[in-house]
Amino acid sequence: MSRSEPLRSRNAGDTAADVLPPPDQHARQYAAVRDAHETELIEDYVELIGDLLEHSGEARATDVAARMGVSQATVTRMVRRLNELGYVSNEPYRSLFLTEEGRRMAAWSRQRHAVVLRFFRALGVDDATARIDAEGVEHHVSEKTLELMERFSDEQEWFG
How far is CA 133 from CA 54, 102, 105, 117, 130, in A? Predict the structure, then answer.
């Protein structure tokens, strides 16, 4: 299905209430998405820096650029922002380091990512697709839904 084709998930019996929620609920939905978009790139960078530190012993800006698929200049701008926010510390021509707050964010983001990835795998999604899909969903899913995803994944392991 192409992006221009409509999803065929609406049933013939769907009412406007099924498709279009009340205005206050609709506004909360969009506000939640805006909030998630605001922090998602920051979380991705912090999580990646944490992963590089854990698995490679260092996090160089060139490695971050390669893994994020962005230019060195883009990473430099983001590192400056992460420094200002108090998540990363660095010195010119040296590796990046996470502050205590950065380590907390990286652990939190990594945990959310792992739950979503396990959930998609438990549904039977192939690994490559599950990894791509989990990368975005982890930032947008509520704590309540995340708990249900984790419970479902645990049950599938138990019965699977």
Answer: 23, 24, 20, 8, 5
Residues facing residue 97 across a β-bridge: 89
Domain coordinates in residue numbering, the chain: 24-159
pTM greater than the 0.85 cutoff: no
CATH architecture type of domain 24-159 = Orthogonal Bundle (1.10)
Residue that the structure tokens 């698929």 belong to? 69
Q: E strands along the chain, which residues? A: 88-90, 96-98
10-61 residue pLDDT tens: 566 666 666 788 888 888 877 777 776 778 899 999 999 999 999 999 999 9
